[in-house]
Design goal:
Layout (H helix, E strand, L loop, with lengths): L2 H6 L16 H29 L9 H8 L2 H29 L3 H28 L13 H5 L1
Helix pairs in contact: 2-4, 4-5
Length: 151
């Protein structure tokens, strides 16, 4: 083989590691990204349509509108499903980027754990906000919500 041919050939790819028995988490992560992406498109466009296209459009969005939506179990579950899917989808994407570009195993491990813990914390916090939301919490007689909250 001449020097010119050696320079123009593509080196052989790395030999793939032998896969252990058991579930293939990378495959399931890949499938999750596709399925959650499709579901998120439906959930997000449904959310945007209801909030921006129905009723008075963007002019209807205020505290009372959000309180009314979060009073309905349907919208609570819609928003929680959107929250969970989006956070897990994003965390899985960040995990993939870290696995692809961080070469030091200990740094990779710390970053993947940080991503997982932050996603878990935000999922927990967001779920608590959606299901425990009370628009009358802390309302006093001087508030514009006083009459509504007394009913």
């Amino acid at each position: 083989m001449s020097v010119a041919q050696e320079a123009s050939t593509i080196p052989a790819p790395r030999t793939p590691a032998v896969r252990k028995k058991g579930s293939n988490l990378e495959k399931w992560g890949w499938i999750y990204m596709r399925a959650s992406g499709v579901l998120l498109v439906v959930l997000i466009f449904g959310h945007l349509f209801v909030n921006l296209m129905t009723g008075e459009g963007i002019h209807q969005i205020d505290f009372a509108f959000v309180a009314g939506k979060l009073a309905s179990p349907f919208w609570q579950w819609w928003d929680v499903l959107m929250l969970w899917l989006a956070l897990i989808h994003g965390a899985n994407g960040m995990r993939t980027i870290v696995n692809d570009y961080v070469t030091t195993p200990s740094v990779r491990r710390v970053l993947v754990w940080a991503i997982g813990l932050s996603a878990a914390f935000l999922i927990l916090l967001g779920t608590l906000v959606v299901f425990t939301f009370d628009p009358c919490l802390g309302v006093t007689e001087s508030s514009s919500l006083w009459e509504i909250c007394q009913a």
